[in-house]
């Protein structure tokens, strides 16, 4: 049975589309749910994202939260679609999660990105982060942008370094080690 909302997409005015040579960055769509859920149950995808799978309900709430950021703040996460296949393959964006974390990220733009493991090593994360930073920089002139990355996620740490993020602290979040990074303007 088709979901009653399956024909709906994020309103174009809510999430501005971005494009890179290989990717479309667009608002989350109901049609992303099956692929996002499948990714969220792949150990090579979630190992650095809390190291536990997420069921469809949890993924759905995550997608709603991504759109909620756009509605509340005028920024949020884009779904990443690979142009060559038209498939959902991750997300990139900026957040205000009100994390209970020290040092605090409150009052900063928190960047984040995820990408399907099948596409690692193609430069897609770099393209997505570059497009997102180019969009946010003139619109939200924050003093700094932050992100948190699992210390074992060498590839993501390398992407962060490409864009001027540097380690601010090593701490724990949800009982897991984490690196807090920042990028000054």
Automatic annotation (TrEMBL):
Could you tell me which residue ranges the N-acetyltransferase domain spans?
23-185
InterPro entries membership: Acyl_CoA_acyltransferase, GNAT_dom, N-acetyltransferase
Please give the Gene3D superfamilies that the UniProt record associates with this protein.
3.40.630.30
> Superkingdom of the source?
Bacteria
Q: Name one GO molecular function term.
A: acyltransferase activity, transferring groups other than amino-acyl groups
Instruction: Tell me the keywords, alphabetical order.
Output: Transferase
Output the PANTHER family linked to this UniProt entry: GNAT FAMILY, PUTATIVE (AFU_ORTHOLOGUE AFUA_3G00765)-RELATED-RELATED, N-ACETYLTRANSFERASE DOMAIN-CONTAINING PROTEIN
The name under which this protein is listed is N-acetyltransferase
Q: Which organism is it from?
A: Hymenobacter metallilatus
